[in-house]
């Protein structure tokens, strides 16, 4: 894979350049991620915050997580696409909500673990051999 990888939100107002592979890629089955993705899970790439660059204006949103931490997010005010989540107390990494459409090799964003499977929809089958966690890792 050649870096940087470039991408954008749905309307193109927010763009990014990712300079190295994610630290990990997770499929999250919590009910909040089901709402976000309008599907059985969302795919999140955890990346070093200093290895990605964003352009364009983003809006903010936040909520309290089950742990009591703040779960903050940035999203495009034009199309509403969620761009990334972050913990304001841990800014070295961000949880990117990349859309792998258009990448020459989307395998970079294939989940290596499924989390919050305690809230997984019963009809979705996790592929064999993938790590599984009942809650957060």
Describe this structure in words.
Keywords: Lyase, Metal-binding, Zinc. This is GFA family protein. Belongs to the Gfa family. Pfam families: GFA (PF04828). With 137 residues, the protein is mainly β. It is 5% helix and 39% strand. The chain contains 1 helix and 11 strands. A hairpin with a 6-residue loop joins β7 and β8. The chain starts with a strand and ends in a 5-residue tail after the last strand.
Index terms:
137 residues, mainly beta, 8-stranded mixed sheet, 3-stranded antiparallel sheet, 11 strands
Query: Strands across the major sheet, in which order?
Result: 6-7-8-9-4-3-10-11
**The CATH top-level class label:** Mainly Beta
Taken from the alpha-carbon principal axes, the silhouette is globular
Gyration radius over CA = 15 Å
Which series of helices and strands comes N to C? Answer: EEEHEEEEEEEE
Structurally, how many domains make up the residues?
1
Please state the second-level CATH architecture: Beta Complex
Question: Would you tell me which CATH topology applies?
Answer: Metal Binding Protein, Guanine Nucleotide Exchange Factor, Chain A
Extended strand count: 11
Q: Residue-averaged pLDDT, rounded?
A: 87
Class by helix and strand content? mainly beta
Summarize the entry for a quick read.
By secondary structure, the protein is mostly beta strands. Helix content is 5%, strand content 39%.
